[in-house]
């Protein structure tokens, strides 16, 4: 193989003048984590609301939840990001559109919001399945005790449902982190983006992508381990995973 | 709001969008799903086989692929495949691989990891008595898998497999990062040439949405029809 390996490349200064190539990749990692964190907060909040709506005894709320999930699940994430980034500012009133386009860090906010809503549909489906997996008696008992619908969800259904769906939520969180790489297409210099620009500047393709790969694997391992602890901590006594 | 939009640009671009773009997207989706299913089934069989080492290798491969973003994997294979080709054919220089071949290899290798988990679940859903009965009838391991286990596993998992293929169909849009003319790539090229981003991206969104919606409706119908009553 006539490829010139040069593992020392990481400690050479990068052409942006922001330190070494390694610093460049680490700043990409930081941006990946920041984007993923904000997207995950959006996904959890909107996903929970929509997921609850799908289980409410109201035709309108069910229908809205169904339409919401179908809308965000049936378009590629890349297309959704393009819609947020290129299309939305044009469809808004002129002043709002201009303001949006001149926003500093526009790729970051677009990516976080776009990925957040994309993932919220998936969170909603998981939560709906979690609430659906609870025995009917729980809701009935809550009603019999005189709890209102809001109270029943707040004190009985949701605390159970969220614990049950913790493992699938972990993989959705990992998906959120991985999906931030799609934002490279709207110019966000997250980890994959930094690895790509390192490759373009230094021509050390395989070193750059190997480093990015290792960093993704590390993040993955940390999240999986952290969630294991969380799972054990909130486990419900009496369930298979319980104490 | 829609006042100064020119929807005629879409009509003019239709042949290019569908004959070139959508043909690429659908061919890539179909072949990648097929290849991913074959490799994925092989991985699942490795994982469930009695040989610990084979199972370990398959497990590592699946976990590795599933923890990387698809975009990064696309870049990896795009740069790696020429060198692998050189190594396989013994050429003196990295061989050039077309955009289609490169992305097809990427998606087969990537999707195999996801299909293998589905097939593993499918194989494990078969009751133990089935392979036991098969070997009592004198069937070899290969025959047991070929005639007894895999057909049932495939049938049980068909809705999930198709759902994964819909995800794959949407994910093929990511070849955009290699400037390949798939459906979204074609739409984006027209959009940039004519300065009509809003019209083209809205149209692309509607097309992806419609196809995925119809397909997932089909999956729901199928699920109701082939559900085995236990």
TrEMBL record, chain A:
Query: Which key words tag this protein in UniProt?
Result: Cell membrane, Membrane, Transmembrane, Transmembrane helix, Transport
Family matches, as InterPro entries:
AA_ABC_transptr_permease_3TM (IPR010065), ArtM/GltK/GlnP/TcyL/YhdX-like (IPR043429), MetI-like (IPR000515), MetI-like_sf (IPR035906)
Presence of the UniProt keyword Transmembrane helix in the record: yes
Principal location: membrane
Q: Which domain of life is it from?
A: Bacteria
Classification via Pfam families: BPD_transp_1
Topology within the bilayer: Multi-pass membrane protein
Q: Which family does it belong to?
A: Belongs to the binding-protein-dependent transport system permease family. HisMQ subfamily.
PANTHER family according to UniProt? GLUTAMATE_ASPARTATE IMPORT PERMEASE PROTEIN GLTJ, MEMBRANE COMPONENT OF AMINO ACID ABC TRANSPORTER
Its protein name is Amino acid ABC transporter permease
Q: Give the originating organism.
A: Bradyrhizobium diversitatis
From TrEMBL, chain B:
**Which InterPro entries would you find in this protein's record?**
AA_ABC_transptr_permease_3TM, ArtM/GltK/GlnP/TcyL/YhdX-like, MetI-like, MetI-like_sf
- Membrane topology listed for this record: Multi-pass membrane protein
Q: Which residues form the signal peptide?
A: none
Principal subcellular localisation of the protein: membrane
| Cell compartment(s), UniProt | Cell inner membrane; Cell membrane
Residue ranges annotated as transmembrane are 24-46, 67-89, 95-115, 160-180, 200-219
Keyword annotations from UniProtKB, A to Z:
Cell membrane, Membrane, Transmembrane, Transmembrane helix, Transport
* Sequence ranges assigned to domain ABC transmembrane type-1 in this UniProt record: 22-219
Query: Does the record bear ATP-binding in its keywords?
Result: no
Protein family (similarity comment): Belongs to the binding-protein-dependent transport system permease family. HisMQ subfamily.
In its UniProt entry, what is this protein called? ABC transporter permease subunit
Organism of derivation: Bradyrhizobium diversitatis
């Amino acid at each position: 193989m006539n490829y010139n390996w040069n593992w020392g490349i990481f400690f050479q200064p990068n052409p942006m003048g922001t330190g070494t190539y390694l610093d460049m990749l680490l700043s990409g990692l930081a941006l990946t984590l920041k984007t993923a964190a904000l997207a995950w907060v959006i996904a959890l909040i909107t996903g929970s609301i929509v997921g609850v709506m799908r289980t409410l005894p109201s035709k309108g709320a069910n229908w809205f939840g169904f339409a919401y999930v179908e809308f965000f699940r049936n378009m590629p994430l890349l297309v959704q990001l393009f819609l947020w980034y290129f299309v939305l500012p044009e469809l808004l009133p002129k002043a709002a559109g201009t303001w949006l386009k001149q926003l500093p860090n526009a790729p970051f906010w677009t990516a976080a919001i776009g990925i957040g809503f994309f993932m919220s549909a998936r969170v909603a489906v998981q939560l709906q399945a979690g609430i659906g997996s609870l025995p009917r008696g729980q809701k009935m008992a809550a009603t019999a005790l005189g709890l209102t619908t809001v109270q029943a969800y707040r004190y009985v259904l949701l605390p159970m449902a969220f614990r049950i769906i913790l493992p699938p939520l972990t993989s959705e969180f990992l998906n959120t982190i991985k999906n931030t790489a799609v934002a490279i297409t709207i110019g966000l210099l997250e980890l994959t983006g930094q690895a790509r620009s390192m490759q373009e500047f230094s021509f050390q393709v395989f070193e750059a992508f190997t480093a990015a790969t290792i960093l993704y694997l590390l993040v993955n391992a940390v999240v999986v381990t952290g969630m294991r602890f969380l799972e054990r901590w909130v486990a419900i006594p009496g369930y298979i995973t319980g104490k | 709001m829609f006042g100064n939009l020119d929807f005629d640009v879409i009509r003019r671009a239709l042949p290019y969008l569908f004959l070139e773009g959508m043909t690429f997207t659908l061919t890539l989706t179909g072949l990648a799903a097929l290849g991913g299913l074959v490799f994925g089934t092989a991985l699942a069989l490795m994982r469930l086989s009695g040989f610990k080492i084979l199972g370990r290798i398959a497990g590592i491969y699946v976990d590795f692929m599933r923890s990387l973003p698809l975009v990064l994997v696309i870049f990896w294979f795009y740069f790696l495949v020429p060198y692998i080709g050189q190594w396989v054919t013994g050429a003196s220089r990295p061989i050039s691989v077309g955009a289609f071949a490169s992305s097809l290899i990427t998606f087969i290798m990537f999707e195999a990891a996801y299909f293998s988990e589905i097939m593993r679940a499918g194989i494990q859903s078969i009751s133990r008595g089935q392979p036991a009965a098969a070997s009592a009838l004198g069937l070899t391991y290969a025959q047991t898998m070929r005639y007894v286990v895999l057909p049932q596993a495939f049938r049980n998992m068909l809705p999930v497999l198709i759902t994964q293929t819909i995800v794959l169909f949407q994910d093929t849009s990511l070849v955009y990062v290699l400037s390949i003319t798939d459906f979204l790539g074609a739409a984006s090229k027209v959009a940039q040439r004519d300065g009509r981003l809003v019209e083209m991206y809205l149209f692309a969104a509607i097309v992806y949405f419609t196809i995925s919606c119809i397909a997932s409706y089909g999956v729901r119908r199928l699920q109701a029809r082939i559900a085995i009553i236990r």
